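During the second year of the project, the team shifted from modelling isolated chains to modelling whole assemblies. The rationale, set out in the original proposal, was that interfaces cannot be judged from single-chain predictions alone. As a representative example for this report, we include one of the complexes processed in the last quarter. Its constituent sequences, exactly as entered into the pipeline, are reproduced here:
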Amino acid sequence: MTDYPARSAQVIERCRQLARITDVPGETTRLFLSPATREAHALLTHWMQAAGLEVRTDAIGNLRGLLPGPAADSPRLLIGSHIDTVPNAGAFDGPLGVLLGLALIEELRSSDASFSFAIELIAFSEEEGVRFATPFLGSLALIAQLEPDTLQRKDDDGISLAASIRNFGLDPAELPATVADPAAAGYFEIHIEQGPVLEHEDRSLAVVEAIAGQTRLALTFSGHANHAGTTPMGPLRRDALAAASEWIAEVERSATSIPGLVATVGKVEVPGGAGNVIPGIVTSTLDVRDARDQVRRAAVEHLLESAAIVCAKRRVNVAHTRTLDQPAVPMDHRLTNLLAAAVTQMTGTPARRMPSGAGHDAMIVARRIPSTMLFLRSPGGLSHHPNETVLPADVEAALAAGTAFLRSLSL
Amino acid sequence: MTDYPARSAQVIERCRQLARITDVPGETTRLFLSPATREAHALLTHWMQAAGLEVRTDAIGNLRGLLPGPAADSPRLLIGSHIDTVPNAGAFDGPLGVLLGLALIEELRSSDASFSFAIELIAFSEEEGVRFATPFLGSLALIAQLEPDTLQRKDDDGISLAASIRNFGLDPAELPATVADPAAAGYFEIHIEQGPVLEHEDRSLAVVEAIAGQTRLALTFSGHANHAGTTPMGPLRRDALAAASEWIAEVERSATSIPGLVATVGKVEVPGGAGNVIPGIVTSTLDVRDARDQVRRAAVEHLLESAAIVCAKRRVNVAHTRTLDQPAVPMDHRLTNLLAAAVTQMTGTPARRMPSGAGHDAMIVARRIPSTMLFLRSPGGLSHHPNETVLPADVEAALAAGTAFLRSLSL
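Output from the structure prediction step:
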């Protein structure tokens, strides 16, 4: 039919419908293998089967719909995103990629396109990591990288991951069967940008070149708590917060000087602090991301060094622990170039290429399967928030570009 | 006898003995009109009576020992400090002033000195403000400035101040009788410095010229919370913590440029903050003190203006509320000059004069009665801490200077 406005409206309406399926009435909160997940599976299964897909739930709870290829051993394109959410989420972070994937399949089937490959649509059960404080359970299982230890992790109610799988009627012993078919030759994920760049540039779409690498640190500044009224300014003070503040200003200044790099102090605490006490201890976080690993590593070293310099002159100690050190994950060149060509063709302007500052299932899947990602503009840069949304015209553009991409693809 | 080393040792031993009387076993925590206060009163009464004082407990729980003067209407010198403590306190903040006062009386009586005035030793029941979140209850009652509303304030157990007075066996209706005798012509308080200045200058004593005025503010910086990975550095960020940090550095820089002024940000919070989220809201405190009211007021205005400037360029809002605005309280010139002369005479070097950056009972009493204060060096600048201490030689110097001061005094 190629009525993209109608399909776009349907995709948005389906996302909204899914958002009403929640574990917490009055908001959208859908946790891994929860009652709401079962209900979401029922609705998605209905839509997938109506589109002609063979639907199954694998042992980690990923809902998977297969459109077989011309032969039993035809190469297979995976299209996916996740359907779990953060607490009090919006309707599009995750589900949009699943329902746009379904709409692409519907569009291609309605246009009688014939493909040399099979398509498997995957609604990953877990990306956000809320229930077991461990993200990417669904995609890790898909590439056989779910650590056996992870099955013993417990949720807030003391239920292990293994037990939660059994409680959902699935069998952890079947986890090997969740692994992607050896014929899987590509992975395509569509996601909202979750940032302000496309809106600022007034663009609908971007092609993701890489998932940025990420270093997270926890820092502790230790000075000396003293009476705020009786300790003069100057060298008799060892103010941990003044030290941390000088450093935070340097984090911002220094990161701003390196295009593409982001560095953020998201948390600062003054444990036991009081208005009339010079802070003795301050803890903070640091989050540094860049698509270029060497740039990120150099920035982290520079920022740690500048913390040491700021603190040394104040007789404040600074210590840090690295809580995450995750290299950048480049997307597949060939697939990404094809996707960019499709975007260029449909929008009439050269495709915007950008790194993703956030992690996505594609970051995991790309370890084993050539992967590519398409971003849609996030109005207000908003995500993980009930007001998160998408523009219908952007969904239309994604449908058009996605269709062109799939038509141009050989696997 | 004038054996200052022996008297000094006794003062310190008595402070330590009092510190073992506590509401919380294993630490020194003595709250207003608590069981420990009753026990402390018994011990102090014993010591005071042995020194020849007529002892009573007034209706706010101040323990008062009178050494009558030559006539019934002789002028009266008040000597005092407080015996309540902060939680997990040291032995000297407060009690030292009471027990040095007692030692001065013992010293003067043993040397058969004759005085033209009466001396009333006051152990104030409440200065720290822990139990009813209201400081200076004892000294406010002494000068008839305890607001009637204050009697309705409740402690953490829901007991009102009035009820706590009755539970201690006292009668709130008798509060008017707590007011200082009309003959009270001077107030003398000895206290630890609670700061590092005397230690840094290697001095035993200082004479307090004024209690610094104090402004306390609560500030809220409101930017916009965004994803730390997907929001580039620069104008698309409205980072409330980067704004607050730039301002905190300016607070320190600016206060350091004005000798005598102190300005401290003691608390910073990022409510709901997370390592991977650009802070949208930051709250902080600001505490500004100076013995010169116009200097303090100008500094507060400058710091609020610089917060506004820092925030405006970042599209961050800043709002503030003033939680305290307390003018400086000068000590009495004549008494302070006499005290300085006594210190100069006993130490052989010109007395160090300094403002007190902390509040003390003298700050309240001075509203009605000419007041003066003597500071003793605080090793490590430490107070409100179990390791708070005094040096025996400094206590000896205080005894010698205090004796000389009292001998030189006419009221």
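The first strand of chain B starts at residue 54 and ends at 57. Chain B touches chain A through 61 residues (CB under 8 Å).
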